[in-house]
Amino acid sequence: MMTMSCAEESRTSGENLAGTFKPADTFFLLESRLTAYGGWGGAIVKTAESSGELAPILRHLKQAPRSKTLFIRRPGSAGNNFFVALTNQARPKLYHAMLSGFDELLTLDIDAKADGRAPTIAGRELDEIDELYAICTNGRHDPCCAAHGVPVYQALVECAGADAVWQTSHIGGHRLAATMIAFPQGIAYGHLDPFDAEAIVTNHRAGHLLAHKFRGRGAFAGHALDTDAHLAACAAEADLRETERLYAYDDLHLRAVVPHNQDRYLVRFETSSGQQYERQVRTGMSAPRQASCGDAPKPMPQHQVLAPSAPV
Q: What residue segments make up the domains of the chain, in order of their start?
């Protein structure tokens, strides 16, 4: 009897995507083929952070609160591209720099965003850009990431252009492959197929998201939620956007996430027109399933939206 891959099992079981992406206020994306580390291994960010030439640089970046560093690559690129995405603000920003060497990152002013300034490296401001799509293709972490991620990467290149699309190291949730993040908003998607590429790019450029593929977002502007509250808010957002057809990024604004009993949160949103909505989210664990190919099945966190669709 053949065992299903973790991605096949997730799709077959109808696993709910919403509320499966952990928060990060700031994303650092650093281009490297990691030849000094033997290439893109499994937990490559943790490996590089512990030793080697990139260790002091990654530790410097880690000083930014609630930050996440990803390695990126794409065929034919031999540069040292570096990107910073600031997601926890009313108008998310995405910045780019071409590095002469990785040591330049030790001069990155990681406090600039707190003052509303563009990040600087060696005193020069990074250039603001409009979009970036980062797709996990890290097959050495889990084969599903390569099997599902590479075709989606290729389809996105066709739709968005090679300059806007990168392959990335593990972003979490390989059972949900193909997984990706759309910047600058930090919108995470899962269970992607190549035919989703055009819809993602078209909607993202128009300021909309795909609610049925939505895993969550990097951060909610103006909030510093703990992980459980953040995941519950993402589950509530997905349900509200789908039921009320509020697909534009600016259609909804998070107002509060309030713990309610031991396993529930009350999540409140407000629309751009001032209409308020509330969702009740129950958190729990799923039936045992593979978190990664070859792993023993185990229960995974899941979220159930209970509140009625009527506004409050």
A: 1-224
Helical packing angle, 197-205 and 143-160, nearest 10°: 50
Residues, the chain? 312
* Cα–Cα distance for residue pair 95/88, rounded to 1 Å: 14
- DSSP code of 196? G
Which is it for strands 187-189 and 214-217: parallel, antiparallel or unpaired?
antiparallel
pTM: 0.93
Torsion sign, CA atoms 49, 54, 56, 58: negative
Q: DSSP assignment, residue 296?
A: P
Residues in Cβ contact with 116 at an 8 Å cutoff, skipping those fewer than 6 apart: none
Pairwise CA distance, residues 44 & 216, whole Å: 23
Q: Which CATH architecture has domain 1-224?
A: 3-Layer(aba) Sandwich (3.40)
How many other C-beta atoms lie within 10 A of the C-beta of residue 111? 12
Secondary structure string (H, E, C) spanning 56-104? HHHHHHCCCCCEEEEEEECCCCCCCEEEEEECCCCCCEEEEEECCCHHH
4-8, 204-208, 233-237, 280-284: least confidently modelled range: 4-8
Q: How far is CA 179 from the centre of its chain?
A: 8
Count of C-beta atoms within a 10 Å radius of residue 91: 9
Q: Distance between terminal CA atoms of the chain? A: 51
